[in-house]
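Page 47, continued from p. 46.
Same chain as before, 213 aa.
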Amino acid sequence: VLAADPAFLLQPKHSNKTHLPWITKPRLVIGFNGSDYLYYHLSKRKPQAVIADIVNFFQLLIDSLGCNLVFIPHDGYPGSQEREFLFELALMANRPNNTYMAPVGLDAAEMKGVIGQCDIFIGMRLHAAIAALSQYIPTLGLYCSPKVSGLHLSIFGHKDYLMHYNNISFDGLKQKFKQILGNKDQIRLQLLKRIPELQLTARAAGRQMRDLK
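Result:
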């Protein structure tokens, strides 16, 4: 029986810890969820060139769009490595007034609350992407797992808003982001229609498991 991930049902939690520090809301808030696995993956093929492409992409977003970036690390194991990786990216971007790292110690619901304040999300992890999509946030998935491509296929029926790790480049990121930014209203409408359907299947999964003999 096909069922959606129960993460679609997680309710975001808001508190003083999850409040983004802007005095006035920036024109655009972009969330970025990293993965220490990406760094390991890139170490097999010219990692510095690809990391530079990601950093240059961040700088382009800030300088040309006037946006702010929120870095969303995964604090479970091996969270310290992932937070360190994102911290290095933020330092390399060198835009301290436009970047913010989610604080240490947030639980999953609080982290979803942070993600929910983003206008567009870029995610390297499945459940971070679900946290954004389930809050109707247009999301670019950077992936290596078929789970992520399957997620996008089940929601959109295509993989237009995905980029495989092997294809990460400055031009590729710029093109994909431009596509999502230009279609963000249409994407939101698709999510508003599709997410409640997935939430119904996620709720039904528990009842179906209960009835198994």
